[in-house]
Amino acid sequence: MQSLLFALSASAVLAAPTIGKRADIKCPIVFDGRVPTSFAANASKFDTSATNTIFNADFVKGNNLTWSGILEFPNVTKSRFDTADHTAVEVTIDDRSIFQKQNGFRRAGLQFLNDTPDGPGQTGVKTLHFSVKQNPSRPLNLTHEYLNVWHERADFAGNQIQFQYGTLIGKSDSDKNDFKILDQSNKQLYAKAADPTQWQNFALKLDYNENMVTIYYSLGDAPLKQVANATSAPLAGGGQYQIGMLKKPTGTSDVANAGFQESPLDESQIYGGIFLEDSANNCVSL
Ligand SMILES: *[C@@H]1O[C@H](CO)[C@@H](O)[C@H](O)[C@H]1NC(C)=O
Ligand SMILES: *[C@@H]1O[C@H](CO)[C@@H](O)[C@H](O)[C@H]1NC(C)=O
Ligand SMILES: *[C@@H]1O[C@H](CO)[C@@H](O)[C@H](O)[C@H]1NC(C)=O
Ligand SMILES: *[C@@H]1O[C@H](CO)[C@@H](O)[C@H](O)[C@H]1NC(C)=O
Ligand SMILES: *[C@@H]1O[C@H](CO)[C@@H](O)[C@H](O)[C@H]1NC(C)=O
Question: Which keywords are on file for this protein (predicted)?
Fold first, then answer.
């Protein structure tokens, strides 16, 4: 009897990973950017402020483009914090991804609907969660510098935290396959090689009171682990989060307006489990 029980529990432990280990969010959600499957079924819901209850319908995207044309919903396993009612979302860029007159960039960035420059996203202690996955049929050109997830200052003069990919302009390309998390002065806080097939889960705990950043990471379905201790980083200046793709050009110092971009362009980054949680009392969903 004893050995039978042992055998049963051992096989249960071994079987667990195959069913996928989702995790519940355990802290209060400030902004929920997880994409409901009902939106994937009718992507035109993203296109107007009357129906887009998740993100800003109007920003930040190519002139004349609609979110329903920019976003795709790949049939991939769900990321760690997405439920049965959520889907992965693929942010695409192409030759038309020119915002206003920024001819140097190709960009498409999601902003949480209720995130305002002096709002609750910019006070207290908040943790930004996102998972990333690569689409092998839309590879990025890692000769270029990409900004994928960031918090831009209200005066647009800098980004307090930056999650980047590719070759950072003016730097060696030896780490081009790494995701790099940088502070406002481009000091690297953490780096992790991009995985070609699995979800990679990141969380950035931003302590706006103490100006400290703590980074958490896991691969696939694994629980997040703290991978960088709290580090001093200036977070003042308000602003907004942005999640998507911003591809910088090569061959210019005026990156917003000039430089080289290959054409035709067809690239993407897949996201899942996007949300901002309240980490007062040190609560972080792992
Ligand atoms: C899709 O959503 C739009 C915007 O809410 C709505 O007008 C339209 O009727 C919906 N289409 C379907 C097929 O549900
Ligand atoms: C966007 O549409 C406007 C009005 O139709 C047009 O004047 C403009 O050239 C278009 N911009 C782009 C980048 O296609
Ligand atoms: C999504 O992928 C799963 C697993 O590969 C497959 O069983 C399912 O039919 C796919 N669904 C769609 C809508 O393609
Ligand atoms: C990648 O970018 C570099 C620099 O802009 C360019 O020379 C090269 O042709 C691009 N590669 C592809 C496959 O487009
Ligand atoms: C955090 O700091 C502690 C104490 O100095 C150290 O033992 C630990 O390795 C650090 N953790 C990380 C992820 O750097």
Answer: Signal
Task: Give 231's strand partners.
Answer: 213
H/E segment holding residue 3: helix 2-15
Q: Whose CA is nearest to atom 7 of ligand 5?
A: 229
Residue 225 lies in a domain: yes
Residue nearest atom 10 of ligand 1, based on CA coordinates: 42
Contacts of 17 (CB under 8 A, 6+ apart): 221
Give CA 78 to chain center in angstroms. Answer: 15
- Domain for residue 16, yes or no? no
- Each residue's pLDDT tens digit, 153-176: 999 999 999 999 999 999 999 999
- pTM equals 0.91
Tell me if 123 CB under 6 Å of ligand 1. no
Asked if residue 276 belongs to a domain, the reply is yes
For residue 51 and ligand 1, the question of a CB distance below 6 A is answered with: yes
Burial class (CB in 10 A: 0-12, 13-18, 19+), 173: exposed
Give the domain CATH number at 107.
2.60.120.1160
pLDDT at 22: 84
Q: How many other C-beta atoms lie within 10 A of the C-beta of residue 175?
A: 16
Nearest ligand (C-alpha, residue 216): 5
The structure tokens listed for 6 are: 């042992």
How many domains are there within the chain? 1
Per-residue pLDDT of 212-244, as tens digits, reads 999 999 999 999 999 999 999 999 999 999 999
